[in-house]
Description:
Layout: H1 4-10, E1 16-19, E2 32-36, E3 40-44, H2 47-60, H3 62-69, H4 74-82, H5 85-88, E4 92-96, E5 99-103, H6 108-119, E6 124-126
Antiparallel strand pairs: 1-3, 2-3, 4-5, 4-6
Helix pairs in contact: 2-3, 3-4
Amino acid sequence: MIFKEIEAFNKGHRDSIFILKSSLNKIKRGHSMLDVGALGTLVVDSPQKIHDYINMVSDCGEDYALGIILGYPPKCVLSFCRSSRTERKGFGTLISGTFSFMCPEEHKDYAVNYMKDRYGLGSKFII
């Protein structure tokens, strides 16, 4: 079984994904990768993105760097990083193409517009 994120990466619809190490054999497109601890592997379409990720981790932390490299809306990434687990329980989930991420309701319109403008994707927000 190939997950939708891996299929989207293989077809060039996404330039970065975060997957379990056990799924690396499903990657068919040229790529660079970086193990992110026990969490999994960041797979990107260019070595520059690995460099950007490492620099962002130093400056902003791992969660922020990963969210930005994966292409999520920056305001949603920042809200996720600054919130506690308890606060995140109040977030909704925005689904847009093969993207799915947590987002506070106050950023819903921004996130929908971001995904439309950057990727040409419609979105659905679920609370």
